[in-house]
Amino acid sequence: MTLSRIKYSAVFLCLLMFWPSGSKAETQDLPFRRISPAGGFTLSPVLEIAEDRQGFIWFSTREKLYQYNSQDFISFEPKYQTGVSHTSNFITSLLIDRSNAIWLGTNVGVYCFNKNSWQIEAVKLVDKEVPDKLLFPTSMKQNNRGEIWMVESGYLALLDSASREMKYVVVNNLRLQANAFCFDDQDNIYAANNSGELYSINTRTFTVTKFAVDISPAKLFGIFLINNMIWVSMDGFGLQRYS
Fold first, then answer.
1. pLDDT tens, 92-148?
2. What are 38-52's pLDDT values in tens digits?
3. DSSP label at 154?
4. Which of 173, 215, 224 is nearest to 195 (CA)?
5. Cβ distance 131 to 151 under 8 Å?
């Protein structure tokens, strides 16, 4: 399947800026207010933001999870598993699922926020091929059917909620590499990786389609599906759009 690619360049933007026109773009001043925890230190860097059913805003940084209640910040640190070094860990992803549970992906496993104890505790998820492996999810999302999918150690996988086992997408007997993904309205997945490959995955049948696109190999920041257009953000190549 060949997708048409639309390139945006600085030259094009300059033409838009200086092209004569009978109308001028209106500008509007938007008020911004810096929000930070007490003590003067800043939340840096904030990696992901999510809202729970109670209206609390949750921020994940590399070291901590923060809850914001419109007035104050409360910070939480994961209660890392025994034997895991505390000096090299960091939070990589945040998900608040449909049951209002808060999931955290870290470079040393998956954790959930226990609202009874107000602790972040380890969740045992299993890679059947490497049972003792600590999972490394860098992106976690939930679709309309309630399934939790993630990019784990650079591979796309579905979490089996009953067995707590990871079900990886496989192509030609190899796990499908992915660095970012998104869902469409039918819960199909569009996934891309740093090698410049773009795929669609039927999440019911695990059927994989590879698209013939000319994405340059680069660090991938994100992939988004808006109005049937696929937007891909990459380091050094800006934003690319596919129909």
1. 899 999 999 999 998 888 999 888 888 888 888 989 998 888 889 999 999 999 999
2. 655 566 688 889 999
3. T
4. 215
5. no
120 CB-near residues (< 8 Å, 6+ apart): 65, 76, 77, 78, 79, 104, 111, 112, 113, 114
Q: How far apart are CA 169 and CA 75, in angstroms?
A: 35
CA 146 – CA 161 distance, rounded (Å) = 10
Residue (of 176, 122, 128) closest to 149 by Cα position: 176
> Counting beta carbons within 10 angstroms of the beta carbon of residue 87, is it exposed (0 to 12), middle (13 to 18) or buried (19 or more)?
exposed
- Residue 76: exposed, middle, or buried by beta-carbon count in 10 A (0-12, 13-18, 19+)? middle
Give the integer Cα–Cα distance in Å for 225 and 190: 8
Tokens describing residue 126: 């299993």
pTM: 0.78
Q: Is 220 within 8 Å of 194 (Cβ atoms)? A: yes
The pair of three-digit structure tokens given for residue 1, joined into one six-digit string = 């399947």
Beta bridge partners of 181: 191
Spatial separation of the C-alpha atoms in residues 156 and 73, rounded to whole Å: 33
d(CA 184, CA 168): 19
Is the CB of residue 97 less than 8 Å from the CB of residue 147? Answer: no
Distance of alpha carbon 205 from alpha carbon 193, whole angstroms? 21
